[in-house]
Every structure is written in structure tokens, then in C-alpha cells.
């Protein structure tokens, strides 16, 4: 149950603070003969017909049938109203608070002509076009401004608990808000969360699920999360956004396909992951998020990733949280998987983040607020928790890949991977300029990838 | 509702007919010196919807050209011009490229060539009805832009071409003798293309935007003034209205008549 917002400041301290070191703990050396799982048929994704707006000529950035007018001081409102109506304007509305009028132009008369006509009248002080506005696409999710530095960082103090209140650096984020002006995702674009499952009843996720998914641990068609990890990851990638509740997700309008390949302890086997990747690819997932990994190179695992890549899925995986120079598998499969390191609220690479030449990009992965099952956090707490790790960084990249795929469905998987790499911010250029082993190309920048570059 | 293309064909056909008719109906005494040369400047804007775009964008052009007017019998004048076109494709966005690009920079240079015919058709009292026809083409040179701020080196390269054909009647007022004001209505057909390629390390893409035939109508007021026996000055200003706005055209020219 979600607690009333007013109570949140008091209860914030009680939010479960989890430093996630779950990666690579259970599946190291865990080997199980790979087996082929019977194919199950899922309900097909609903097809949405995307209507293109009709091609219309558009003048400059103002309304084509309205202008704003102010009369000189001392002009009687009744006279002013009558004067405007004498021009033949079909609608005249007074905005008393600023002593102005909104006027609908006469049929067949352009805004330019109307303004010229009005400006010739000595009683009129000001006649202006009714300029268009643009939504500053800041979602209204409760915690967006105060906790989600990862999406938009304005240099806040991150009030995690009385003891943990780091000062963040403005701009150390993935530039989500300007990117959302260009793309918020398509419901037909599917992100498979191959993890511990997903709490499909969570308010942030209930409306975002493609299906109940597939559970390769218990071998059924219900990928409900009995841990918390997958729910948190899914929320970061694509939580319900602008719903006046909780958090915003990166791929706001994309949907989630849950695939359970790790058990209630967060442990799994390569075979489960292999099955999960192949199954997700066969279901038409556009992006596969793997916030998990193991220490051992395995040709079956690599082939599964290559299969998904060839099926048209962007595969994104976590580098690992051991702070060592070895990127986990499958993240280390350079040709077909994007390997993700974790950065923090100051755009520094997290000290726990594994490194190596296989790294592609970094994304925020320290104190990331995301959804968690209510049963896990307890009824007295809000169903959210903070987590750190490359697990938390990875769904940022998965969400970004989904947004690119939504905006440009014709792009190849390789092109999407290149866009994510080449648009990154080189956050550690002072010490490691260019492509390096700690941040790859840098921390992802959604604005640069999705907002048109202006040719000057 | 008629197809715009068929309307365009009708308009152009009507214009061509007017010009052919002019040969037979023009005044017998030529009032134009057989040869004149000069310079012209023209500024025009045209709001168009590029194929596949949901919204319109504007083509703005500044045209500077050398001009030669050839006078023929029956008052028919053929003007040929060649020069420089500076074309600005305001807010044109290339969304199909891997990284979307939006044109927001300085004008693209190009070669301008054009021809215009004015043929008198009928004179009544101090008025004269003429037919006009004009074709103008700008062949853009390619321009490259560095793509800065990315993790790898990159550049974009663009080339644009456009062509406009216009026909319509002109009514001149001859009362003042050396100063001849006129009003001109034209149907204007525009075809344009803009090819953009993008390279970011091994990430490449290309997109060609097209306007395959946009029809618009203009109304213009102009005047020709003979400053002396050999020097004439011409000016014209007009509008191209469309739903929600208006485009404009302005031109000036000076001619030396041999």
C-alpha cells in the first residue's frame, strides 16, 4: 500500500536502503546442462495503428487564428470590446487580470493581416501573435524531482536517510527530460527484463506488462518476482510515468516482458539465462535487459546473445559489481551485447563497477530509486527502495535503446548500439580521455541521441 | 476536390496558352530595346511541406544574378539570368538519419539560372494585359558540417536543389509613360530536394527530402521606371498566402538598354 505523500518525508528514512551486491553472486560457477524449454505461445502484442498527423502547412510558432491585444490606458473596456467586434472578429475574450484580449481572427484573414490592421488603430497599445508553447516535459511523478537525479540532476541533496545525504552535481544525469520531448516510447516496443521476475501488481508496473511472462526457475508462465531485483530494474527501465505517483521510467511508454531466470535468492544458472534470452527474443522483444552475469565465458551463453541480436533485439548487460578488471558475461560479449558500468550522482565511475575493454557505456547506478514489491519492503514502507550497482545502471541503457527503437524502428540493432555509444558523455576524460576501460565511451546522453543535432 | 497536380497542370497550361496567344495579339510596335543587360536581386520565401513531414518548413532564398533581356517582335521580352543563390531551409529536419539533424545554419550557396518571358496580350485604354512565364532553378553546392560533441569524429554533408516555375497574367498601367506600375498574379510550382548524409565513425546514414510539386499562388505589385533613355529600374513585391500565414517575395533590378 502506498503511503500518503504527506507522510513521505517522515518515512523516507525508513525506506529500505539496499546496496545491491547481488550481481554475480549466485550464478558464479553455477553450471547446469542447458536444456531446451518447450515453446509456449504468448498472447501477441496488441498492434497499434500509429496515425500520422495530416500534413499541414504551419506558419511560424503562433496560432493561425488568434491574436492577443491590449488597449492604451484609459480606454473603456466596453468601448474596447465593441471596437474589436466591429472588426468582425468572431470571438473576443477579455483577460481582465492583465487587461488584454484574446481575439479570434476573422475568417480568411491571416494573423499577419490582423495584426497589421490592429496596429494601425491608435487606441491599441499592443497586438501580438498568440505564440505556441511547448511542454516542458517534466513528469509529475512524486519522487522525480527529489530523488531521480539519474534522469534529471539539478544539483540536489539526495536525502536518502539522516546519515546518507550526498550532494549531487547538476547535469550528472542521462538528460532524460529533453529527450522525452523527442520520444517517450511506443507501446509496441518491448523491453524484456530477464531477471528475478517482476512484481506485476506494483502500481508503477501493473499497466506496463506485455504478459505474465515466463518463469524458467519454476518452469511456468508466471514471472512474478519473489526477490525484488527484477521489479526494481523493470521500474527504472519503464515505470509508469506522469501518473503522479512514485518514479518515472526511462522508456516511459514502452512495455515490459518479464522473464524469470533467477530464484528468490537472486541465484540462477547459465541455462536459465540462455532460455530466458532466447524466449524473449522469440517473443519479439526489442530490448533485452540483463542486470546479471557470471564470471565464466560460455559459448552457449554467447550464442544465445548472438541469437537475440540477430533476431533484432538490443541486448544490454551489467558489467558487475566487484570493482575488478573483469567484465561479467554476457556483458563481455562485445559484438552482440552492450556492457554497462555504473556512474554516480557526480558523474564519477562507481568504485564497485567492474572494468575492462569490453565496456561500452556507463549509466547512473548509485542510489537509484526504483519500485520494490510491497511484501518485500513491509506494509509500513512505501514500495520503493534505493539500490546501487551496475544492475541499476543497465536498465537506463535498455530504456534508452527502447526509446531509440521506438523513434526510429528502421534502425538496425548495430546502429542502435552505435548511437548509444557515440552519443555518450566522456565523463572521465580528465583521467581517461576517449574510449576507456572504466566508462567505455562515457555516461549515456539521451538528449544527444534523440534530439536533432542543429546544423549551424 | 481537385488534385493539386492537376490544378498545377491546368495553371501551367493556361499560362503557356496565354504566352502563345501573345505572339499573335501583341502590339505591332515594339517598345522594348532589343537588348538590355543588368543585375537583379530577389528575396523569396516559400512555406512547403516536405514529403513525409507532418509539418511545414520554409525555404528562404536570396538570389543575385546577372540578367540579359532580349526584345523580340510584338513586345515580347525574354529575360535570361544566371548568378548566385543562397538558400536557407529553415528548420528542415532529417529524422530518418541515425542521429536526427535539423537545418539551422547559414544559407547554402548554389548556382542560379533562370528565364522569364513577358508577352503583351491586349491593350485597353491605358492598361495592358500581358502574360508572364518564368522558370528558376538553383543547383546547390554541397556543404559539410562537423558533428561536434559526440564521442567520435563525425560530419554531415548536404546538397540541395530546387526549381520554381510560375505563370500568370500581368496588368500594367501605361498612363505615366516612363513609370509603369503593374499587378501580377502567378501560379507557382515548386520542386525541391535536399540530400543529407551523416557519418559518425562507422555509423552512417543518408536521407533525401523532397517536395515533388508544391503549388502556390502569388499576388505582386511591381513597377518599371525608365530613369533615362538607357537605364531602367524595376521593383516588385508580393505575397504568397497560405492557410495560417503568408510568404513573401521582393525583387529589384537595374537594366542598361543598348
| Oligomeric category | heterodimer
Helix content of chain A: 10-25%
Structural class of chain B: mainly beta
What Rg of chain A do the Cα atoms give?
26 Å
* Helix content class of chain B: under 10%
The CATH topology annotation of chain B reads as Porin
Which residue ranges of chain A are poorly predicted, with pLDDT under 50 across at least 5 consecutive positions? 1-60
What is the percentage of strand-forming residues of chain A? 15-25%
Shape of chain B: elongated
Secondary-structure element sequence of chain B?
A: HEEEEEEEEEEEEE
Major beta sheet, strand line-up of chain A = 7-8-6-9-10-11-12
| Helix/strand order of chain A, N-terminal first | HEEHEEHEHHEEHEHEHEEEEHEHHHE
Question: Main sheet of chain B: which strands, in order across?
Answer: 1-2-3-6-7-9-10-11-12-13
- The separation of the N and C termini of chain A measures 52 Å
**So, the CATH homologous superfamily of the largest domain in chain A?**
Peptidase S8/S53 domain
Strand count, sense and barrel status of the largest sheet of chain B are: 10 strands, antiparallel, barrel
What structural class should be given to the helix and strand makeup of chain A?
alpha/beta
For the secondary structure, the number of strands of chain B is 13
Arithmetic mean pLDDT of chain A:
85
Main pleated sheet of chain A: 7 strands, parallel
Amino acid at each position: 500500500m502506498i503511503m500518503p505523500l504527506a507522510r513521505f518525508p517522515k518515512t523516507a528514512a525508513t525506506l529500505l536502503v539496499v546496496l545491491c551486491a547481488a550481481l554475480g553472486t549466485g550464478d558464479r560457477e553455477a553450471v547446469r546442462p542447458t536444456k531446451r524449454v518447450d515453446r509456449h505461445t504468448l498472447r501477441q502484442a496488441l498492434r497499434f495503428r500509429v496515425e500520422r498527423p495530416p500534413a499541414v502547412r504551419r506558419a511560424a510558432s503562433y496560432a493561425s487564428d488568434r491574436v492577443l491585444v491590449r488597449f492604451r490606458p484609459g480606454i473603456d473596456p466596453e468601448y474596447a470590446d465593441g471596437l474589436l467586434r466591429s472588426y468582425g472578429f468572431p470571438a473576443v475574450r477579455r483577460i481582465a487580470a492583465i487587461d488584454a484580449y484574446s481575439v479570434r481572427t476573422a475568417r480568411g484573414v491571416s494573423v499577419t493581416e490582423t495584426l497589421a490592421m490592429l496596429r494601425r488603430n491608435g487606441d491599441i497599445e499592443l497586438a501580438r501573435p498568440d505564440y505556441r508553447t511547448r511542454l516542458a516535459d517534466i513528469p509529475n511523478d512524486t519522487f522525480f524531482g527529489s530523488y531521480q537525479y539519474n534522469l534529471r540532476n539539478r544539483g540536489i541533496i539526495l536525502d536518502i536517510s539522516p546519515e546518507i545525504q550526498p550532494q549531487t552535481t547538476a547535469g550528472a544525469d542521462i538528460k532524460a527530460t529533453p529527450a522525452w520531448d523527442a520520444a517517450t516510447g511506443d507501446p509496441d516496443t518491448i523491453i524484456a527484463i530477464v531477471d528475478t521476475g517482476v512484481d506485476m501488481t506494483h502500481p508503477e508496473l501493473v499497466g506496463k506488462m506485455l504478459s505474465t511472462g515466463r518463469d524458467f526457475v519454476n518452469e511456468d508462465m508466471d514471472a512474478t518476482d519473489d526477490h525484488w531485483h527484477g521489479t526494481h530494474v523493470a521500474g527504472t527501465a519503464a515505470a509508469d510515468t506522469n501518473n503522479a505517483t512514485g518514479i518515472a521510467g526511462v522508456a516511459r511508454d514502452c512495455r515490459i516482458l518479464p522473464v524469470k531466470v533467477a530464484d528468490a535468492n537472486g541465484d540462477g544458472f547459465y541455462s536459465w539465462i540462455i532460455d530466458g534470452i532466447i524466449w524473449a527474443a522469440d517473443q519479439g522483444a526489442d530490448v533485452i535487459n540483463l542486470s546479471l552475469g557470471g564470471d565464466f565465458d560460455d559459448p552457449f551463453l554467447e550464442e544465445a546473445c548472438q541469437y537475440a541480436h540477430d533476431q533484432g533485439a538490443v541486448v544490454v548487460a551489467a558489467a558487475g559489481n566487484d570493482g575488478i578488471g573483469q567484465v561479467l558475461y554476457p556483458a563481455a560479449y562485445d559484438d552482440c551485447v552492450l556492457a554497462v558500468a555504473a556512474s554516480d550522482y557526480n558523474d564519477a565511475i562507481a568504485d564497485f563497477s567492474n572494468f575492462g575493454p569490453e565496456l561500452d557505456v556507463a549509466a547512473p547506478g548509485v542510489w537509484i530509486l526504483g519500485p520494490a514489491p510491497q511484501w518485500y519492503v513491509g506494509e509500513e514502507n512505501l514500495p520503493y527502495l534505493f539500490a546501487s550497482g551496475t544492475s541499476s545502471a543497465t536498465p537506463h541503457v535498455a530504456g534508452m535503446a527502447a526509446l531509440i527503437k521506438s523513434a526510429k524502428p528502421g534502425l538496425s540493432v548495430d546502429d542502435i548500439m552505435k548511437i548509444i555509444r557515440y552519443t555518450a558523455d566522456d565523463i572521465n576524460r580528465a583521467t581517461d580521455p576517449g574510449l576507456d576501460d572504466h566508462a567505455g565511451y562515457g555516461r549515456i546522453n539521451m538528449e544527444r541521441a534523440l534530439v536533432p543535432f542543429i546544423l549551424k | 476536390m481537385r488534385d493539386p497536380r492537376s490544378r498545377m497542370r491546368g495553371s501551367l497550361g493556361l499560362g503557356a496558352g496565354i504566352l502563345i496567344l501573345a505572339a499573335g495579339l501583341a502590339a505591332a510596335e515594339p517598345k522594348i530595346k532589343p537588348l538590355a543587360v543588368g543585375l537583379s536581386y530577389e528575396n523569396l520565401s516559400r512555406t512547403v511541406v516536405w514529403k513525409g513531414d507532418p509539418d511545414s518548413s520554409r525555404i528562404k532564398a536570396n538570389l543575385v544574378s546577372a540578367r540579359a533581356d532580349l526584345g523580340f517582335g510584338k513586345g515580347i521580352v525574354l529575360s535570361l539570368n544566371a548568378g548566385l543563390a543562397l538558400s536557407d531551409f529553415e528548420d528542415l529536419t532529417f529524422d530518418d538519419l541515425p542521429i536526427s539533424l535539423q537545418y539551422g545554419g547559414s544559407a547554402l550557396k548554389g548556382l542560379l539560372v533562370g528565364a522569364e518571358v513577358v508577352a503583351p496580350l491586349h491593350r485597353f485604354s491605358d492598361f495592358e494585359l500581358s502574360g508572364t512565364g518564368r522558370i528558376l532553378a538553383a543547383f546547390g553546392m554541397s556543404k559539410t558540417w562537423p558533428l561536434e560533441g559526440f564521442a567520435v569524429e563525425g560530419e554531415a554533408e548536404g546538397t540541395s536543389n530546387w526549381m520554381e516555375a510560375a505563370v500568370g497574367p500581368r496588368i500594367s498601367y501605361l498612363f505615366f509613360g516612363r513609370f509603369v506600375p503593374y499587378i501580377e498574379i502567378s501560379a507557382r510550382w515548386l520542386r525541391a530536394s535536399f540530400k543529407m548524409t551523416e557519418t559518425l565513425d562507422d555509423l552512417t546514414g543518408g536521407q533525401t527530402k523532397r517536395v515533388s510539386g508544391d503549388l502556390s499562388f502569388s499576388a505582386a505589385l511591381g513597377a518599371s521606371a525608365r530613369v533615362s533613355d538607357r537605364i531602367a529600374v524595376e521593383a516588385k513585391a508580393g505575397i504568397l498566402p497560405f492557410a495560417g500565414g503568408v510568404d513573401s517575395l521582393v525583387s529589384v533590378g537595374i537594366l542598361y538598354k543598348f
